[in-house]
Amino acid sequence: MYLDKRRLKVASKNIKKLKDRIKEVKETDTKRLNEEYNRLVEGLSTRSSTDSYEFSQGYVEEIAVPGNPVEGNPIPAVLPNDIIKESMPPAIRRADLFLNFLSSIINYFRRRIRSTKSVVKETPAKCFHHLNEKTGISKKYLKFSHARLKSLLHTLKITNLREFNPLTLVADFVTILATFDQGFVCIIEPRDTKIENSDCILQLSCLDASIAMKHVFDRFRSVIITSGTLSPLSFYPKVLGFDPVISRSFPMSSSRKVICPMVVTRGDDNNPISSAYNKRNDASVIFNYGKLLGGLCNSVPDVIVCFFTSYAFMENVILSWNEQGILQDIQRKKLIFIETKNVVETTIALQNFKCACDRGRGAVFLSIARGKVAEGIDFDRQYGRCVIMFGIPFQYTKSHSLESRLEFLRSEHNIQASEFLSFDALRQTSQCIGRVVRSKTDYGVVILADCRYNTKEKRDKLPPWVTSFLEKGYLNLSTSNAIHLSKNFLGQSSQPMSTLELNKSLLSESDIRSKDIDMPSISVRNLSGCFDWSNSVHDLTIEVARLD
Asked: Which pTM value belongs to this model?
């Protein structure tokens, strides 16, 4: 999470609106504020942790507000014990005093951002120490900021919670800052004079992923972690801080080849293609990427989903394709839709893209690895017959937040920077690939368009449900080879599946037992109640952490 000049300015306006709202309530319903005060005196543990919507006289009686930023769950169920057992500090029980308290924090952040001339990296403890020196605010008050704001928004019957997101972000920021001395880093980046309209940023970045899982392992004796992208399995116990009792990987339950992965390393002119920093602006690389997409538009029905490594790279490629006439050639075959940084624009693009597919026009969706589309949108059935990875989505290595995390992983877990960067990039690749295979009847072509995918070190980090279909004859291909193989695969896979083939795609209880998996204290019947096996086509990777 991060704070900048604009968000802090809006947060100040949020405080003014809440003060006006308090004045209105004092004039019409003073009892409501008094009841809240008494409830805070009694302590958080007496409050209900359930948030629900109940409409009465035009107001929402219970507001579904964001959960505790420390634990990721509603308050007070998983608040740290020292907060649950204590009553709210007297200095912030009254609503007007609490808003003054938040206002002083916002003013401090504003001054801190304004006075910073170079990049500053601090531990949460050091950042709090600086805040305490300038404002005199104790850590105890900061820890209650999130809970106190939640209570106030509920008491004032605020229905448009999104309007108060900036103020909520400030409360979450200081709550985490006061709760954790380690595992986070505070980074202040001054305004970049080379970038127009850039602003100074105060960022709180999590370095230790085990923080998010610790409360789960503390509360439950057995934990099952499942995903189609847990590769390699040995990496996750290190970064999540647990020792798995059982680690198993199940193959994809399918009666036929549902994906056809290929590694395209060169264009028809034999020039290598790659999104590596020293090659991504090469005219031949961009041209060959365009010819690959244009050729696939002729043989792939319905939809092609493309993933780029960054917005900057995608914008540069699109501009070059426009100058080379490639974009116009693609548009004559399929409609083009583009993911942008604006969530509303991207949502509209997704809606229109599906309409184009439903009406038989076909579409190409250009999106970003790590973006909204790559993380949460399904391109099942005819909405995704081909996915193209234009490069390997490595993180921006000059990021101060990433540099801090790499240093943390090296010092705490002996994980080298290159190891983590490759793991993270290939995990993102798996996420993108999985967008087009969402049920037992789905099938699609997967194009890995970067010569670096041809190395065994990179391919070994892909999950088994991808590598099991990656044949030797589909490595080191040219663009024309990939287009020809795609046409053959789609022609075969488009034939209807028989009832027998559909039944073979399902995992029965006997199928699971035949794997001879020793899973103490966990029955197969319980597992089958947790997963919808009928829709499972990825391999199922299971890790169990038992805390005895």
From this structure: 0.74
